[in-house]
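User: I'm putting together a teaching handout on how multi-component assemblies are represented. Below are the sequence lines for each component of a complex, exactly as they appear in our records. Could you produce the 3D structure of the whole assembly as structure tokens, so the students can see both representations side by side? Please keep the chain order the same as the input.
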Amino acid sequence: MGFWANMIKEFPYFMSVLLHGAVTTITVAVGALAFALVVGLVVALLKMSPFRVVRFVTSAYIELLRGTPALAQLFVIYFGLPDVGIDVAPVTAAIVGLGINGSAYLAEVYRAGIESIHKGQVEAALSLGMTPARAMQYIILPQAVRVMLPPITNFSIVLLKDTALVSVVAAPEIMFYARNLVTETFLSMQVYLLAALIYLSMTIPMARVVAMLERKRKAWR
Amino acid sequence: MLDLVEVYRENIASWLPEMGMACLGTLKLTFVSFLLAIAVGLLVALLRISTHRTIRGVALTYIEVARGMPALVILYIVYFVPPQVAPGVKWLAFSSFTAAVIGLAIHGGAILAEIFRSGIEALHRGQREAALSLGMTPTKAMAYIILPQATRIVLPPVANYAIGLLKDTAVCSLIAAPELMLRAKDLASSSFQPMAVFLLAAALYFVMSYPLALGARYLEMRLNYSR
Amino acid sequence: MQSDKTTSTDSKDAPLLSIRDLHKSFGELEVLSGVDIEVARGEKLCIIGPSGSGKTTLLRCINYLEKPTSGHIWIDGTLIGEKKVGDRYVHLNDYELARERREIGFVFQRFNLFPHLTALQNVTIAPRKVLGIAPAEAEAKGKEMLDKVGLGHKVNEYPERLSGGQQQRVAIARVLAMQPKLMLFDEATSALDPELVGEVLRVMRELAQEGRTMVVVTHEIQFASEVSDRVIFMDQGKIVEEGPPSAILTNARHERTRAFLSQITDR
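Assistant: Of course. Below is the structure of the complete assembly, with chains in the same order as your input.
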């Protein structure tokens, strides 16, 4: 019927436009992931600081970022910062916004991963004469990384989906282009279906990877 | 930055009531979507462990697809597509609130289905066998033995989902659902004070979600203790 | 030979449990290779053998927690676990099996008590929800059963507060409350710390003296020699030897039986 005829006719055009957006989607996702991984680690380490003030500030950072929607954070960065004199480009706002949001989440993942390593491991390492730093480097972190891989991969999947939000800060990713296409052609069903397919083609393989990682971890225990 | 203090002093009296009302919209949206998502999630979880291969397959596909897409795409599809594809059918032209609820429930149902399924599977197989050995039918075993225990296990992840849901309602502003973010956007553009308005909105979201977060953490502690 | 769904009005001589040519395979692996057993009413049968011999699988087939690949089982003259559809036999599903399982009591190696219920609730849940017995009556009977296994003072405790031996005794009380015709024990003491084994064996001995029909899979040779009327030695899915405990346990005919027994008692 009309649906399929339009779909077949417009498929090449829609796909080329949407895939254009997919490039931005991936750019933003990778950028935000890198940002979140690094900043998250810093935050996690700060949270273990001996100074109560530092611990408090870091906790507040984590609570505030996890307790507010990513969309609100994006708005504050993209619309709010110019207001106080700092101009931000859309993609930058997207990466920083999602990155900061992710850093709070990953800080908790890091903490849980490190805490999950049995205290006996630390004790064994120290009794062998290792300094805390060496214990961390050779014994704790390698095991913690294995534990953290599934949640970090899960987070990447969530991050990929959250990039859809940055369409509102005019970052030219998939949904941004999708909305334009719909305004242009009124073929909302075809456009959004194709957009959905593109997302699924990225998230489903990643989900399989997570499942495999989980299985390997269970076997390894 | 000190301007901010000035801005707030001037406007807080008119902003707060307006945004406060919008918060009610957010809470209402969260509550209704949560209930619907739980219902959907339970149903799909039970289908997922069905003995019929086709039923299992359908449930699995739904879960993978609904979880693999951004909630935004689902919301757009629910809100924009029916009026365009079936313009005559009036009841399909969902209001933004209804579309938001449906969209969030579809997305959330998939997430919850997986949470419920792992809760049920976390139970040792021996529990089911003991129940069946005593002469219980699978239904009775599920009702008296499996589900009561599984509920305890899933409470923390479900609580976390609820918090995420509250934050996701902000996305519904993009289909003009009556909640806080939409009001904030309007206010920001009409007052030309985006920074102040959005910070205030963020603060209000925090005020709504933090009690939930504390409650979830308390639940987790209580449940781990009594196991 | 017995017919299918007829309830027998046989004399007391008819066997309570009858197993014919039972085979069970898990995929490629055949775990039971043709087992024939008859257990008379009131008889205590002990099954011993190395791990992997199929004895647990055999027990689990009796209450159809595992579905046999071939072979038939009768309890009290009635074919269980299957129904005749035209010319063939078809396995019953868990809904249909529920009815038959009421009369078979199964005590698990890992107890499988319901952790969200107290000891008394564990014992009364099946009488109430499966047999429809009124709560007050079920509770009275439940307390009686818990008393019988020596746990009358623990009726309101949750399983996590009970020792392994206590948990297993609650599990036995739970089975007793359903008044089964046949009781199956799947290595009931294997998961217990050594000092807790005695209290469970004591309960099992009492039950044996009451004239109950019991099939016990166990490693406790001493217990088997004292309590059983008949001992079966299984290996690699087949019955190797069977006979009264005095014959088997002290004077086995087959090499494999003797090898197994010396291994166990040497420990």
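A couple of points students might notice: Residues 2-47 of chain A form the longest helix (46 residues). The helical segments of chain A are 2-47, 52-66, 70-83, 90-115, 119-127, 132-162, 174-185, 188-220.
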